[in-house]
Amino acid sequence: MSTELLIKLREQGQLSRPEFRRLLAAWEPGLQAEAAVLASELREQHYGRRVFIRGLLEISSYCRRNCFYCGIRRGNTRAQRYRMSPEQILACCKAGYPLGFRTFVLQGGEDTGYPDELIRDLVQEIKSRYSDCAVTLSLGEKSFLAYKDFREAGADRYLLRHETADAAHFAKLHPGNQSLQSRLRCLQDLRFLGYQVGSGFMVGSPFQSLETLSEDLFFLSEFKPEMIGIGPFLPHHDTPFADEKPGSMEFTLFLLSVLRLMLPKVLLPATTALGSIHPTGRENGVLAGANVIMPNLSPQELRGKYMLYDNKLSSGAEAAEGLRLLAEQLQTIGCEIAVDRGDYPGI
Ligand code: 5AD
User: With a 6 A CB cut-off, is 170 part of the ligand 1 pocket?
Assistant: First the structure.
């Protein structure tokens, strides 16, 4: 029964909301294993054994938002704040290029102290110095004009998770000045402007249900992002969700496989949260269908300060200098690192 839903999803790239719900409700180790086999087949068909790497630069831990789950929320007075200068960021790119990075991801909180013009100029500078590299931005909700400026300066991709496609659930994860509607407006703007767009959600966030998750899958099947980031929710001790339980690695792996079946060419990272919840989380992610890993390229001394959740990994194979370790880990599962921009291969 549920196997048929996996096959139908692979054949049609789409299920109804009730079908998604049934598929998720049927989750058990046997079904998960079947999904992983089918998903790996598709990953292999479209990408071979190559895993793309992205150099992640966490450029600012200041944030004007107050998302209930996030450690760098404005209301967390204990969070350590920093802002990397453009020079610091360029120095990280300089270090990352010879390591093999051909995508730089500039991620940060919604930092009002980082003017859009500065970001724009920085994007332009990176693109002129590294013309064979892609620049991905992940800086939250911005105006259409800001997104347009960044795009014209050369930004190629933008990551903005929708977090949950259920408006009532969205309202339980965020304060009243944030809305799903506004998030979706941003995603539409980004697409209109020609970005490769990434979205996604946390697995096991508080108040998540099979209904809200079916809504997430349905939304993604319609929007068809070029990239999808999912990872387990992990509590942060200085947030309102400090005592909530973490999401499950296994369920995250199942969802990764389902996403690969739904959007066979999607760029799907095995996220830091997945690597943080289990020592082999990222390899398991690749085996479940993921094909992207985003090692941390930020300066060592800042890494401990970008704490979205407790025990966030930033060293070992998670770190850019740990690429050799990462390569070894990938080799154990028959995969290799690709020195490549790793763009979305088109429809
Ligand atoms: N656990 C897991 N993921 C988190 N994020 C933020 N806080 C947490 C947390 N506590 C994710 C959000 C956000 C991305 C940058 O990190 O989904 O979009």
Answer: no
